[in-house]
Amino acid sequence: MYDVRLVLVDFDDTLVDTGPRFARARDSLFRLLVEAGFDAVEAERVHHQEVDPAMRARHGFGPHRMGPAFAETYLTLCAAAGIDPEEAFAARCLELGAAVAGTPPALDGAFPALRRLSRRLPTAIYTQSADAAYQLRCLREAGVVDLVGDARVRVVPVKTAAALRETLDAFGVQDPAGAWMVGNSLRSDINPALELGVNAILVEQPDPWHHDVVEPLHDGFRRVSAFSEAVDFLLDVTNRPPGSSNR
Ligand SMILES: [Mg+2]
Question: Residue 202 falls within a domain, yes or no?
């Protein structure tokens, strides 16, 4: 039996549908640009390799960069083609990107599972954003703060092993083996946990963002296909009488 002192749960693409909305918005932008006569491959290259990295450096990860990045992609393509940009078209691009902002919808079954988990085990939301105030607003509007309680939400700029250690300390957990991290990102959720000796569960995504896909430090973690499966597992292992098998 595990002695579970803390379960940390990621937010974006673990509990709510964030990444696919970003990807769908980008697809809409490229369709619009192709309809306007630009080359599809060149439009994607300009967005992915020139504009978005610069916007991420300026605005950080998150939806605030999307509108400016979309409009800038159009302006860059116009400049390269030697044509005058149309203000109304640039505004349409900006709107497409800006529409991604706002509270993302819950993934199927995720919130009932979070409720079950937080009633039985000490649970906290652990998430990263360049804009903590925006992220807190999303957490609140999604209803996640109500589920776990105000004091059990932690937003950090980047999820590193050091940020995870500080988070354990903030919740009074000394021994990393008493903590669990549940999330969809090998880079941000699993590897920092493995580095510290925190138990980890990867909630696999069918179409993960390339930035999240890195080699795991080792294979000592579980993989599930939905957050509710991770909760079933955690409630099951903590139910077993001492001395019974873990799996
Ligand atoms: Mg995530």
Answer: yes
172: CA distance to ligand 1 center in Å? 24
Coil vs helix vs strand at 55: helix
Q: How far is the CA of 77 from the centre of ligand 1 (A)?
A: 32
* In contact, 18 and 12? CB cutoff 8 Å: yes
What is the pTM assigned to this prediction? 0.80
Same domain as 76, residue 183: no
Query: For residue 189, what are the domain limits?
Result: 6-17+104-239
Could you list which residues have their CB under 5 Å from ion ligand 1? 10, 12-13, 184-185
Give 208 Cα–ligand 1 centroid separation in angstroms: 10
Q: How many angstroms does the Cα of residue 241 sit away from the middle of ligand 1?
A: 33
Q: Provide the token pair at 125.
A: 């939301």
User: Helices 52-59 and 66-81 meet at what angle, rounded to 10?
Assistant: 140
> Rounded to the nearest whole angstrom, what is the distance from the C-alpha of residue 87 to the centroid of ligand 1?
35
What is the 193 CA–ligand 1 centroid distance (Å)?
A: 14
**Who's near 213: CB < 8 A, 6+ residues apart?**
186, 187
Q: Consecutive 10-residue runs of the chain (247 residues): their mean pLDDT?
A: 89 90 90 96 94 86 85 97 96 91 87 96 94 90 93 95 98 96 97 98 85 89 97 88 51
